[in-house]
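<purpose> Linking amino acid order to shape
<body> The protein record starts here
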Amino acid sequence: MGMEIERKFLIGDVSQIPLDLSAYRYETIEQGYICTSPVIRVRRMDDNYILTIKGQGMLSREEHELPLDEDTYLKLRDKADGIIIAKHRHLIPLTDVSPDVGQELSSLTLELDVFLGLHQGLIMAEIEFPSVEAANSYQPPLWLSHEVTDDERYHNSYLSTHPAPSV
């Protein structure tokens, strides 16, 4: 069991990102939702398979993750309601995004999700923080100025049953 403390930012276009994405490792993610209240998700991230249960909340919520094997993942994915979400997640050290971020946040990663399939064109950035205080004190650069942390339309569980909002 753990606590997920995360801020989300919408990026209108890949040209707004002042970084060369090819310089960063990325993961291919596919995920489906068995239930959206509470959130029960199955995810394939490259060759890893995970069942996740998330509690209520926007900035902060409980999160439980359990490993799955491929066969179990495939059986559960077939039971998912709605859209199977596909995306590439680029892993960018936060110090490359905000060089003056400070010691407490220097080990964090910005996860840049470039959506594929039905949600193609949607690009979001997420940062998980060690505390609510750290999350609230982080000052993002201008290209991360459109925060959607509190907008449920940009939660993946919502996107699993709806097309992407207009960017």
The radius of gyration is 16 Å. The first strand starts at residue 2 and ends at 11. The mean pLDDT is 94.
